[in-house]
Write a structure and sequence with these properties.
Blueprint lengths: L4 H16 L12 H4 L7 E6 L4 E5 L5 E2 L4 H12 L21 H5 L10 H12 L4 H16 L5 E2 L1 H10 L1 H12 L7 H12 L1 E3 L1 H7 L1 H4 L10 H14 L5 H7 L4 E3 L4 E6 L3 E6 L10 H14 L5
Antiparallel strand pairs: 1-2, 1-8, 3-5, 4-5, 6-7, 7-8
Helix pairs in contact: 1-14, 3-5, 3-6, 3-12, 5-8, 5-9, 6-9, 6-10, 7-9, 8-9
The chain binds glutamine.
């Protein structure tokens, strides 16, 4: 049985208290200068239940850089726009490699392993861009995030986007490599322009938890994606949502999730809840250190694991 709202509230408070007792917070992403300076000792967790209620603990109204969590939004948008054709360009297998891995792309001749590693997300964004203006595709992603969250108060942090544009050489390399294999329809500059800006969207854990309602199949969620596609996005989140840490996340949490180097996590408890966690210090896989710990504690306390 699902615990009551008041029980969950207490659990979230207990988790936050336990997190604030920890000594090791991990380190914020260093390769994006604008993120490197964020104080790692921050934490927020929000849970959206089937009745639409959002329960939170910590800094749940503080916007943070969603980074790769945006890959969920672009995948939802691309499945709606190009449908299963996307799979002729991107695979659906876990990579077992870092999120920005170049070596796999060479081995697989320009076909990224899945849409949640950088190379796969760049292709997904490229498919969304198609022959449209970058600002149109970007507006579609931002509007989708707003619609899913049920909030217009979601914006792109231009400083973060610029910071990554200036230092994102590895993503530029990935885009050129994709292009050399004919797996990028636009110029690397156009596609990466959208990609860097989508990564720089900022949301609070409250907004992000609400944005996951449709994936969790909760009542009252805006129907931006079919049940059929939502189920598949969850499968990809379970197998590929944490890069080379995906197996470990499945083992510890047992729920589909997607991480970002801003320290955010979107986690889906199918038919029960949508969960967002944020803490900017990262573990060795580039996933939130405290966020992953908190997710494991929540899953244990509620029994929400799908296994
Ligand atoms: N914007 C980041 C990048 O492309 C996103 C990576 C991540 O969140 N893991 O490197």
């Amino acid at each position: 049985p699902t615990p009551h709202g008041s029980q969950i509230s207490q659990t979230l408070q207990d988790i936050a208290a336990e997190i604030f007792r920890q000594d090791d917070w991990g380190q914020p992403a260093q390769y994006i200068p604008e993120l490197a300076s964020v104080d790692p000792k921050q934490f927020a967790i929000s849970v959206c239940l089937n009745d639409g209620k959002v329960l939170s603990a910590g800094a749940a109204d503080k916007p943070f850089s969603i980074q790769s969590v945006s890959k969920v939004f672009t995948l939802v948008a691309a499945l709606g726009r190009v449908g299963d054709q996307l799979w002729s360009r991107v695979g659906r297998e876990p990579s077992g490699a870092t999120f920005d891995s170049v070596v796999l792309l060479e081995r697989e001749q320009g076909q990224p392993r899945n849409p949640f590693i950088n190379a796969g997300a760049i292709v997904t964004t490229d498919s969304l861009l198609c022959k449209r203006e970058p600002r149109t595709a970007l507006a579609e992603v931002l509007e989708l995030a707003r619609e899913m969250a049920g909030s217009d108060d979601i914006f792109i942090n231009k400083k973060v986007a610029r910071s990554e544009t200036e230092t994102g050489s590895r993503n530029v390399a990935l885009a050129h490599y994709l292009k050399s294999h004919g797996n990028l329809l636009n110029s690397p500059e156009r596609t990466l322009g959208v990609y860097f800006h989508q990564c720089a969207i900022e949301m609070t854990t409250e907004q992000l938890a609400k944005a996951g309602r449709i994936l969790a199949g909760l009542s009252g969620a805006p129907r931006v994606i079919s049940r059929h596609h939502a189920r598949r996005v969850n499968a990809l989140m379970m197998t590929c949502g944490h890069y080379d840490g995906s197996g470990d996340f499945a083992y510890r949490v047992g729920l589909p999730g997607k991480s970002g180097v801003g320290g955010g996590l979107l986690i889906i408890a199918p038919r029960v809840a949508s969960i967002a966690v944020w803490s900017p210090g990262l573990n060795g896989y580039g996933n939130s250190h405290a966020g992953t710990r908190a997710a494991a504690m929540l899953s244990k306390a509620t029994n929400w694991s799908v296994f």
